[in-house]
Fold:
Amino acid sequence: MATYLDEPEQVRRALSPIRRRLLSLLREPASATGLAAVLDVPRQRVNYHLRALEDARLIELVEERPRRGFVERVFRTRPGALVVDPTVIEDEFTHIHDQYAAEHLVAVAAGTVRDVARMQSAAADTGKRLLTFTVETTVRFGTPQDVHAFTDELAEALKAVVARFDTAGGRPYRVVVGGHPEPRGET
Structure:
């Protein structure tokens, strides 16, 4: 289950250096007192940041235990990955629709991350699993013209497969096919 950040204020709360450190340390449950000792900062300062992280729903209360006249609260980072909606960071690529432009691939990928993370979070909240699929491969092109020919042929093949499986009244799925050069050193 991912913690999905789609509000600029949530992202701001999570990205300060001390809060990033707290999120990392809170992979294991801990109290403000224990965290203050590890970070060598006052407990009150840690409490301030814990409240902000709790308000942003980035950490959760695990237990409360009585300690010498006060209640010690133990927190942990919410289970799963921390996913930031890319559109919160940058929204400049959404206007480009050239299927061969890197900016268009980034915009489509960002939209996919946003949509899937939201649906995954909603499904997890109801105890369900989000049904998705991924197809991934590597192809080596001899020339830039081969990229265009491959894309045209793949689009035609995809249209044929979609025509065979598309059912009126069925649950719609968005299928995204993209390609980019492999980062150096990964081949």
